[in-house]
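tool_call: predict_structure(chain=1)
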Amino acid sequence: MLTTFPLGPSSKVLLDGSSLVGQEINPNYRMFQPLAEALQRRYGGTAQVCNRGVNGSTVGNVNARFLTDLSCAPFTTIIMDLGINERAVAPATTTADLTSLLAKVPDNVDTWIFTPYAWGEKWPTGSQGGFAGANDTVLDTVAAQIISLFAAKPRVMVTDLRTLMYVNKLPAANPANAQTGVWTWDGVHWNPPGRVTLWNIMQPLIQWN
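tool_result:
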């Protein structure tokens, strides 16, 4: 398992996942936009980024299209958010989808996986869209599944946003116990402060070549 993530002037990066990554969402809210901008600043057009995130994607949706997404360029690097939309998916199905997706990740491609942050920013249980409490259990379970399954692959790094941001950082950052507006604009999708917080987590983990 990787402990730092290599990026350089010849990086060809596939971004995949849900609307958190997404092609449709305003660039100001895309979770990996600061990374794309940093690559452009450092390397200009030699490093390339292809965004294949799709609104509402479950792990199963990402798994179903992954080989097609992967075939659109000779990627050196994959970065994905996984698990935010599993609240209506049976845990066994999520496990099967993650296992199938893992088998499709090429052994010669560096891959960075991010677990889900939150579905509502109240603490200790978020509440958004009628999934209070129970959805936190789903996100906790999915994060643990991702860590367990992907940790065994040598060229994969997993960053657990569920622990790093929701568990460790959110209580101090959210003294009013607000449902939204801390690091998201709607309880799920990143706002600018959230993106900055995420980027501050990512930067020390990147090995710029």
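agent: DSSP finds seven helices and seven strands in the chain. Proceeding to next step.
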